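Much of our argument rests on the idea that a fold can be written as discrete symbols. Part of our work consisted of pairing the sequence of a single chain with a tokenised description of its backbone. We regard such an encoding as a compact summary of how the chain folds. The amino acid sequence and the backbone structure tokens for this protein are reproduced below.
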Amino acid sequence: MTNTQDDRRPFALVVDDDALILLDAAEILTEAGFRPLEASNVDSAELILVEYADEIVLLFTDVQMPGDRDGFDLARMTAERWPDIGILVASGLANPSPELMPEGAIFLRKPFHADIIYDRLQVLLPDGKLPEPLKAKVRQH
């Protein structure tokens, strides 16, 4: 893929304090056609959002993280400050109550795999925000 093609791919912010899960999620999103940005806590994620918010179309966050804020806090802040960003919240432990999740966000149970993420992204993101590789994966199903 050339740099020009790569530059047109939308950004997705992946947030998880587990390096292996972060890497796995970033790889899944890369295969789907996103350019993943990675953070291991809410504070780092917020700095990335401030810098890249106009180009980020997806926040994919874990719930449990180090620090004073968790993934639910990040999801609500993102929905409030950047309502055009789609939000996917993942956890193997937490079960979100309605007040924890921002409107329009989708919850994903861990462990996850690529096909489940692709299916959720089809529901979460409008067609115009879906990268071409993800559109192609959906047409194959």
The chain has a mean pLDDT of 90. The helical segments are 3-8, 19-31, 42-52, 71-81, 114-124, 132-140.
